[in-house]
Amino acid sequence: MTNGGPPKLAANGLSYHYGDLQALRNVTLEVQPNDLLTIMGPTGSGKTTLLRAFNRLNDMLTGTRMTGRLDMDGLDLYGPETDPAEVRRRIGMVFALPIPLPMSIYDNVAYGPRLHGVTRKAELDEVVEKGLRDAILWDEVKDRLVDSALRLSGGQQQRLSIARVLAVEPEVILLDEPTSGLDPISTLRIEELLKQLRERYTIVLVTHNPQQAARVGERVAFFYLGELVETGPSQRVFTRPLDRRTEDYISGRFG
Amino acid sequence: MSEEGRVTREGHPKRGRRRAGLSERGVERVLTVVALSAIGVLGLITVFIFIGGLPAIAKTGLWAFVSGHKWAPGRGVFGIFPMIMGSLWVTIGALAIGVPLSLACAIFLAEVAPPKTARVIKPAIELLAGIPSVIYGFMGLVILVPLIRTHLGGPGFSVLASSVVLGIMILPTVISISYDAMKAVPEAYRDGSLALGATKWQTIVMVLLPAARSGILAAIILGMGRAIGETMAVIMVAGNATMVPGSLLDPVRTLTSNIALEMGYAAGTHRAALFGTGVILFVIIMLLSILASFTTTARGKAKVNPKP
Lengths: 255, 308
Known about the structure:
The complex is a heterodimer.
Chain A: E1 9-18, E2 21-31, E3 36-40, H1 47-54, E4 64-72, E5 75-76, H2 84-90, E6 91-94, H3 105-115, H4 121-134, H5 138-141, H6 154-167, E7 172-176, H7 184-197, E8 202-207, H8 210-216, E9 219-224, E10 227-233, H9 234-239, H10 244-250
Parallel strand pairs in A: 3-8, 3-9, 6-7, 7-8
Antiparallel strand pairs in A: 1-2, 1-4, 4-5, 9-10
Helix pairs in contact in A: 3-4, 3-6, 4-6
Chain B: H1 3-11, H2 13-60, H3 62-67, E1 71-72, E2 77-78, H4 81-112, H5 115-128, H6 133-152, H7 159-169, H8 171-183, H9 187-194, H10 200-211, H11 213-229, H12 232-238, H13 255-262, H14 268-304
Antiparallel strand pairs in B: 1-2
Helix pairs in contact in B: 1-2, 2-14, 4-7, 4-8, 4-11, 5-8, 6-7, 6-12, 7-12, 8-11, 9-10, 11-14, 13-14
C-alpha cells in the first residue's frame, strides 16, 4: 500500500520501559495514510503503551525509558523542535473508558476548538454540530446540548469522546479499546462509525478482541508480551497466520 | 457470615440473637449520644452567648449597637460598627493575600512539581499550621510593623499588617485542602484534555480547576473562618484602635480582639456588651457559612448547564 510518500506513522526499533518492566520490545511498524490498522493482543502486550507513546501522553510519567524512534510524516515525534501539544492535536486519542469532561455536551466538543483559538459562536456551533454528526451522535443530543455530558449513556459518552477528537481535525485517530466498556449494540455502532471515518482519517484501533479485529481491520498487527509478532492484511492473518502464537491467539487459546 | 456462626445461631437462636442485638444496640446508642453531645455543646454555647449578650443589645438597641461608631465602655456607650468593619477589612485583606498564594502553591504541588519535591514541601507547609498564633503575631510585631511604619508610613499597626499575618496563617489550610481537591480529580480528565492538544496550563485552567472547584471553595471558606476567628496574632499587630479604618495603614480592632482585650476587667453592662459582640460575630459567621454553602451548590449546578 505504499504510495511513495513517507508513512503517516512509523515506529522504528521502539522499546519502552516502565522502571524495570519492559512494555515494548524493539517494535518496528508503519501505518500508511488512510489506513485502518487494528492492533490486537492480550492484556499486557504493550498495545496501549504504543498508542500513548505516539500521542506523547506518557511524557507525564516519571521513571520511564524509551529508545527507538517514532515518526509522523517522516518527522521525529520526539524531536527537539516538536511541540507535544501540537502532536496531540494532530494525533487524536480515544480511551478505553469514555472520558466526558465535567461540562456540558456542547462544551465537551467545543473544548478542543476553543483551545486552538476558535472563539466565534457561529463557528463553534458549526464545529460542534459537525463533530457530533460525524460521530453519529447529533440526532440523539441535538435538543440537550446544554446537559451535562455525564448524563449520557456509556455508548453515547464514547461517541462524544470521538466527536471531541474529530472537532480538533486531527490527521490520525488512535483508539484504545474504545468498546471494552460498552454493550454489543453500542460496540457495533462504534465499529460502523470507524468504517465511515477511515475514508478521511488514518486510524489505529487497539483491541484485545480478535473478533473485533476481524470485523473492523483492513490490516492487523498482533502484539504479544511487548513484541510485534506479525502484521499483514486482515484476511491473510486470520486465515493463514505465519506465527504459532498468532494462531493460538485468534483461535482463542489465550487472551 | 461464616458457616460456624450460622450453626451456633440456629442452635441457640434466642441467646445468639439477643447478644448480638444487645451489643449492636449498645454501640449505636453510645455513638448517638456522642454525636448529639457535640450538637448539645454547640447549642449550649449559643444559648450562653445569647443570654449574656442580649441584655446589652436590648439596652442599647440592636441598630445603635451594630451601627454605633463610638465604643466608650466607661460612659456606657456601646457601638461596635468599627469592629465589624475591622473584622471585614482584615478578613478580606487576608483572603486577598492568602488565596492567590495558596492556589498557586497548590497548583504547583499537585501539577507542576515532581512528586519527590511535593512530598517534601507539602508536610513542611502543613507544619505551618502547628505554629502557635502568638508566634505569627510576634513575627508581625517585630518585623512587619516596623517595616510598614518606615516604608509606607502610619503607625505600622494596621489593617495591612493584620492582613499579611492572617494571609500567611491561612496558607496551610487553603493549600492542603485545595491540593487534595486537585489530586482527587480523576487522572482521566487530564489525559482526555491533553489528548485534545491542550497544554498543561490550559488543562489546569479549563478542566482541573473547574473540576476541583467545590473543594477549592471549601478551602477558601475554611481559610476565611480561620481569618475571622483569629484573635491573638491580630491583637499584636492591629493597633486595636476603636475607629473605622480609613485606609490600609490605619490601626484596626476586630470583633474577636474587642472581646479578648476587655473581657478581663469588664463587668455589668460592659461585660454584656462584649457578649453582644460575640453574638454579632456568631451571626456573621453563620451568615457567611450559609452563603458559602449556597454559592457552592448554586455554582456547581450552574456550571454543569452553561449556555451553549
